[in-house]
Amino acid sequence: MATYVIGDIHGCFLTLQHLLLKVRFSPTQDRLWLVGDLVGRGPRQLEVLRWARNLGKQVVAVLGNHDLRLLGQAFEVIPPKKKDTFRSLLAAKDKAHLLEWLRHRPLIHSETPYILVHAGLLPQWSVEKAEKYGREVEQVLRGPQARKLLKSLTWKKVPAWDERLTGFKRHGAILRAMTGLRTIGPDGSMCLDFAGPLDEIPRGSAPWFSAPLRKNKPRTILFGHWAALGFYRAPGIVGLDSGCAWGGMLTAIRLEDNRVFQQPNVET
């Protein structure tokens, strides 16, 4: 049995199937961990969601920012953008089952020595606290206040993290960090607007994973979200978004031997 971790799929279902053939994935024996953003941008989002849902317990998929945007549109709290490609998905006969499945995905998954999260963890969070915060927000997202929580995706300014935050300021800050984090400012605040490569990070800012006193260092964090970073591996971190939706690669890593597999985009 093997566990494969796959980067941001973004509706690139044909590319995904090519990658699964390349790694010889067995749906009865192997497991898949998906870093989120199953949907958004690509042409076959509906197929990706149906495929993931049908795999049942063989797949662990954490929520990404595009997955949340889909839920936000379904709850009618986020207006569609010109480039949004959710129309066919939201018109599907089985959309209710698919959206309910998506709504019940975790924000963070932990199996020693790994942490799976879409974007990253704030440096001041220990692994234990990050798991606790994730569970807090998951409960809200699955409950009657989900609509109000999803509105936090439209916030132009996210509150700086403080353990004393309460209510939707607290939950929104956690949600945005786990699904949108790339860099942090000199005061430790989240810089959610920057999406470029490492050599273009604004002066004074730094990647979230480079903080010298990062409290979640004891684990290896597997994440996606940062396409301009590409496949990136360093002690304690593995970035798996290699820009498949932009015509790049879809990347997987096998946890048992750390072997990396890549498949070029083959979508039409």
In words, what does this structure look like?
There is one protein chain. With 268 residues, this protein is of the alpha/beta class. It has one domain: 4-Layer Sandwich (Purple Acid Phosphatase, chain A, domain 2). The protein has helices at residues 13-23, 45-54, 65-74, 87-90, 95-103, 127-141, 146-150, 167-180; strands at 3-6, 31-34, 59-61, 108-111, 114-117, 183-184, 190-191, 206-207, 220-223, 232-234, 237-239, 249-254, 259-264. The strands form 3 sheets. A 5-stranded mixed β-sheet has the order 3-2-1-12-13, covered by helices on one side. A 5-stranded mixed β-sheet has the order 4-5-9-11-10, covered by helices on one side. The two termini are 33 Å apart.
What's the short story on this structure?
This protein is α/β, with parallel strands linked by helices and 268 residues long. The chain has helices at 13-23, 45-54, 65-74, 87-90, 95-103, 127-141, 146-150, 167-180, and strands at 3-6, 31-34, 59-61, 108-111, 114-117, 183-184, 190-191, 206-207, 220-223, 232-234, 237-239, 249-254, 259-264.
